[in-house]
């Protein structure tokens, strides 16, 4: 008889529209965010990951890192994967990371009600580029590409101007291959739908590993595009093809070259005048 009363009571509750959940059910947060460590030093890679309760079509996760002094040091937009997770790696250090203390990571997904944050301790930065974490672009040593790599080491990064591409030469250290993550400033290479290749909306890069097209992951900010590219154990060259690539010599080098040419012409003119016979 008690069983019958229980069934009747349950039907009565459902009829009123009350949401009945099992006692063990837990309401998960709309979005979560975590780091792989609680503290970092200058030059470390910060691995950030999280999960959303439900995917929102057309909405990326907006991530901000705020320094101990309150300055905004990083902003990124991250895609949510099909399993409702997201993640990125960020190199700690540089001019905006000088402050020592507690840094805050804030994430927002779609609306102001879907937010989360976490903190980590940072030892402060000298403002210099962490050694071993960046590679200069050949012909433009003032331009640096950030990276992290497993299963190999980067030998060089060079522009191929006619192909509008960037050539990354890798020496594998594992027969199983590996993965490289490249944080490429837009002033090095870009892919956009504008007529000049440097304006308009972003379009996808075309990536080849030893001549074969490969799938890759990408995240973007206003200043850089970050590509995560797999390579095989015998893979040695990655080509990233865009719509614009920096010339072999940067703008400053071009200015210096132009000044040098003018100086040489001026000196030559004076020399010719000085050796001409006077009447």
Mean pLDDT: 81
Rg over CA atoms, rounded to whole Å, is 27 Å
Run of helices and strands: HEEEEEEEEEEEEEEEEEEEEH
User: Residue ranges: pLDDT <50 for 5 or more in a row?
Assistant: 13-27, 249-257
Widest sheet: strand order? 2-8-7-4-5
Shape: globular
Roughly how many Å apart are the termini?
A: 134 Å
Helical content class: 10-25%
What is the number of helical segments per DSSP (H or I, 4+ residues)? 2
> Could you tell me the number of beta strands?
20
Plain-language structure description:
This protein is mainly beta. It has two helices and 20 strands. Strand 4 (61-66) and strand 5 form a beta hairpin. Residues 13-27 and 249-257 have low confidence and may be disordered.
Task: Give the SSE layout.
Layout: H1 2-15, E1 34-35, E2 39-40, E3 45-51, E4 61-66, E5 72-78, E6 85-91, E7 101-109, E8 111-122, E9 134-137, E10 140-150, E11 152-160, E12 165-172, E13 178-185, E14 189-190, E15 206-209, E16 212-213, E17 217-220, E18 224-231, E19 237-241, E20 244-245, H2 251-275
Parallel strand pairs: 2-8
Antiparallel strand pairs: 1-3, 3-6, 4-5, 4-7, 7-8, 9-10, 10-13, 11-12, 12-19, 13-18, 14-20, 15-16, 15-19, 17-18
Features:
279 residues; five-stranded antiparallel beta sheet; 2 helices; 20 strands; 43% strand
